[in-house]
Design a protein that fits this description.
Helix 7 packs across helix 8. The longest helix is centred in the C-terminal third of the chain and has 13 residues. It is globular and about 65 Å long. The protein is an alpha/beta fold. It has 2 domains: about 240 residues, QueA-like (3-Layer(aba) Sandwich); about 90 residues, Thrombin, subunit H (Beta Barrel), CATH 2.40.10. It contains 8 helices and 17 strands. The model has no long low-confidence stretch (mean pLDDT about 95). The strands form 3 sheets. The chain has a 9-stranded mixed sheet, covered by helices on one side.
Length: about 350
């Protein structure tokens, strides 16, 4: 991270990420990923592996995972009028004021799209599969689109959509193996346009080891939106408009957090999505559970209420994710850790290695 030592500037959370450090393929063995373990109390760093988690976590620790499932959100098609190529990314289903079911999409094409224009969605073999009508421009450069049918949205996406790999992995071009690999073993509740990537490292056998060790597990749901990866575009981080995502923290998870705290165990969030879900519920002060949207923006000065530890992948520079982990771990420790990770060849971003902050 470069720039002035001013925690309020976006430049402070910037760093040079070599293209060679960005993982393009997942490891065959999820648990073989490297793990950089940060100890905030001693300001120390250890080099380990994900499979070492049962040795690191203690009995009565609680691991909180995000059970959101990635939907096949990437769409390919052509503009009906011009026959020009079109790409879309499904973000959410919305209901208009008049009760009309619409899809919120990011769109990419040459030229300028117009309200009322129609898109023909095609399958992998180039066959026509569906029609979309552009209804209105929406916030953040997105479009509201009419699916022109009564087919349930998840059924529609399952039929015509593809794995929504981020653009920094093979320019977003998915392969057959990505269908399984870009999904966590916890994935149950469909809704994410991107994987909660810290959870990609777990396997059933690793979870069995953790359970045998006495490490407990609880779930939250946060449907990941594409805005989570967008760089901060303002000079001051406080000027950045934080995106909103839907999350749910159940009564059972709230009870598990309380029980862990009573037993002096640690609440370890798997991923920034789990952090934001737990902290949202804690900040709102709900007695039992929380369901709704969150635009919680964790930045310098934030006091953590629920989370004692965090497992997270290495993030893009100049993002709210960098601000979050830097706020949690301490800015000097994160700066040193990222420099060490690049120097020693850790793999970055979605298919990359991980960091455990305790």
């Amino acid at each position: 991270m470069t720039g002035p030592a001013d925690l309020t500037t976006a430049e402070f959370y910037d760093y040079d990420l070599p293209e060679s450090s960005i993982a393009q393929e997942p490891l065959a063995d999820r648990a073989a990923a490297r793990l950089l373990v940060l100890d905030r109390a001693t300001q120390s760093i250890r080099h380990m592996n994900i499979r070492d988690l049962p040795k690191i976590l203690e009995p009565n620790d609680l691991m909180v995972v995000n059970d959101s499932r990635v939907v096949p959100a990437r769409l390919h098609g052509r503009r009906a009028e011009t026959d020009g190529r079109w790409e879309g990314l499904f973000l959410a289903e919305v209901v208009s004021d008049n009760g009309r079911r619409l899809l919120r999409l990011l769109s990419k094409t040459r030229g300028t799209l117009r309200v009322g224009e129609r898109i023909t969605v095609i399958d992998k073999d180039g066959g026509d599969q569906a029609a979309l009508e552009l209804v209105a421009r929406d916030t953040g450069g997105t479009w509201l689109v009419d699916p022109c049918s009564d087919e349930p949205t998840l059924d529609f996406l399952s039929r015509v959509g593809r794995v929504p790999l981020p653009g920094y992995i093979r320019e977003g071009i998915a392969r057959r193996e990505d269908v399984e690999r870009y999904q966590t073993v916890f994935a149950e509740r469909p809704g994410s346009a991107a994987a909660p990537t810290a959870g990609l490292h777990f396997t059933p056998s690793l979870l069995e080891e953790l359970q045998s060790r006495g490490v407990k597990r609880a779930e939250v749901t946060l449907h990941v939106g594409i805005d989570t990866f967008r760089p901060i575009g303002t000079e001051k981080i406080d000027e950045h408009a934080m995106h909103s995502e839907w999350c749910a923290v159940s009564e059972e998870t709230v009870a598990a957090v309380r029980r862990t705290q009573q037993l002096s165990g640690r609440v370890v969030a798997v991923g920034t999505t789990a952090v934001r879900s737990l902290e949202t519920a804690a900040k709102v002060g709900t007695a039992e559970s929380y369901v709704g949207s969150t635009d919680l923006y964790i930045r310098p000065g934030y006091s953590f209420c629920a989370v004692d530890g965090m497992l997270t992948n290495f993030h893009m520079p100049r993002t709210t994710l960098m601000v979050l982990v830097s706020t949690f771990a301490g800015h000097d420790l994160i700066k040193h850790a990222y420099q060490e990770a690049i120097r020693t060849g850790y793999r970055f971003l979605s298919y990359g290695d991980a960091m455990l902050i305790l």
